[in-house]
C-alpha cells in the first residue's frame, strides 16, 4: 500500500542537506583522517619522513577542527563521533603501523604487541573520553586538567625515536627493543589516570606574556630550520611538564579538600 503524500508515519523528515556551517569542521576532521591514512601509505613505501609529517599535519588539523566548530557554533554529536574515529586511526593505528614498518618488524612478535598496545590504548582513551563527555563530575576536567596524555600528543611522543633517527642518522635509535619499550610506555601514559596540563590551565603571568609570544615565534622559526631536533625538544619539554601537572593537580585537590572540610565545620 502506498502511503499518502506527506504521511511519514510520525517520523521526522530528514534535512535536505548540510549547511556550510556544519560542513566546515567535519571537512577538517575528514582531512585529518586522510592525512593519517596517507602517513601509512608513505610508510609502506619507505618514506618515513613524509609519513611522520602527514601524521603531524593530521594533529594540526585535529587541533583546529573543534575550535572552528565552536567559533561557527556548529558542534554536533556527529562531529564528536567523527573526531574520535579519526583520532583513533590517525593517532593510534597510523603511528603504530609507521613504527612497526620502521623498526618493530625486526622483532615481529614483540614488536607487533608494542604496536598493538599503542593502537588499542589510543582507542581505549578515546572510548573513555566519549563515555565521560556528558558527565558533569570529572575531577581532572573540572580542575582544568586532562586525564592521561591526549591522543595527538601521544602519537607525537611515540614517534620521537624517528625524529632522533632522522636528525642524527644514528641507527641506535632504530633498535626495535628500545622502540618497543618506548612505544609501550607512551601507550600506558595515554590510558593512565595521570593529570596532565591542558592549554586552559597554562596561564602565563602578565609580566612575561611578551616573552612567551617571542618564545612561540622562535619555536616556529626553529621548526622551519631544524624541524626534527625541534620536535625532539618539544617532546622533551612536554614530558618534563608531566610531573608538574601531577604536582599542581595534587595541590588543587588538597585545597579543594581543605575548603570542603572548612565548609563542613561551618555547617556543623
UniProtKB/TrEMBL annotation:
Record's family? Belongs to the CDP-alcohol phosphatidyltransferase class-I family.
Q: What is this protein called?
A: Phosphatidylcholine/phosphatidylserine synthase
Topology with regard to the membrane?
Multi-pass membrane protein
Could you tell me the keywords of this UniProt record?
Lipid biosynthesis, Lipid metabolism, Membrane, Phospholipid biosynthesis, Phospholipid metabolism, Transferase, Transmembrane, Transmembrane helix
The UniProt entry lists the main location of this chain as membrane
**Pfam families, A to Z:** CDP-OH_P_tran_2 (PF08009), CDP-OH_P_transf (PF01066)
Keyword Transmembrane helix carried by entry: yes
InterPro entries in UniProt: CDP-alcohol_PTase-I (IPR050324), CDP-OH_P_trans (IPR000462), CDP-OH_P_trans_C (IPR012616), CDP-OH_PTrfase_TM_dom (IPR043130), CDP_ALCOHOL_P_TRANSF_CS (IPR048254)
Amino acid at each position: 500500500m502506498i502511503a499518502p503524500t506527506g504521511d511519514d508515519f510520525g517520523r521526522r523528515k530528514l534535512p535536505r542537506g548540510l549547511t556550510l556551517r556544519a560542513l566546515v569542521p567535519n571537512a577538517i576532521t575528514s582531512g585529518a583522517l586522510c592525512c593519517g591514512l596517507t602517513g601509512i601509505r608513505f610508510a609502506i613505501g619507505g618514506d618515513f619522513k613524509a609519513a611522520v609529517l602527514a601524521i603531524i599535519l593530521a594533529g594540526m588539523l585535529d587541533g583546529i577542527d573543534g575550535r572552528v566548530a565552536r567559533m561557527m557554533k556548529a558542534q554536533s554529536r556527529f562531529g564528536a563521533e567523527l573526531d574520535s574515529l579519526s583520532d583513533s586511526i590517525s593517532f593510534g593505528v597510523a603511528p603504530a603501523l609507521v613504527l612497526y614498518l620502521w623498526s618493530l618488524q625486526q622483532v615481529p612478535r614483540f614488536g607487533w604487541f608494542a604496536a598493538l598496545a599503542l593502537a588499542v590504548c589510543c582507542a581505549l582513551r578515546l572510548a573513555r573520553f566519549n563515555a565521560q563527555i556528558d558527565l558533569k563530575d570529572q575531577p581532572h576536567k573540572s580542575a582544568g586538567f586532562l586525564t592521561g596524555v591526549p591522543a595527538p600528543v601521544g602519537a607525537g611522543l611515540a614517534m620521537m625515536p624517528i625524529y632522533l633517527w632522522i636528525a642524527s642518522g644514528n641507527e641506535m635509535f632504530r633498535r626495535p627493543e628500545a622502540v618497543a619499550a618506548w612505544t609501550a610506555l607512551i601507550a600506558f601514559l595515554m590510558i593512565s589516570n595521570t593529570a596532565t596540563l591542558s592549554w586552559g590551565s597554562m596561564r602565563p603571568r602578565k609580566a612575561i606574556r611578551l616573552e612567551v609570544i617571542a618564545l612561540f615565534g622562535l619555536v616556529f622559526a626553529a621548526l622551519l630550520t631544524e624541524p626534527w631536533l625541534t620536535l625532539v625538544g618539544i617532546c622533551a619539554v612536554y614530558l618534563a611538564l608531566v610531573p608538574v601537572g601531577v604536582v599542581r593537580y595534587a595541590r588543587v585537590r588538597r585545597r579543594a579538600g581543605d575548603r570542603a572540610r572548612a565548609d563542613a565545620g561551618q555547617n556543623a
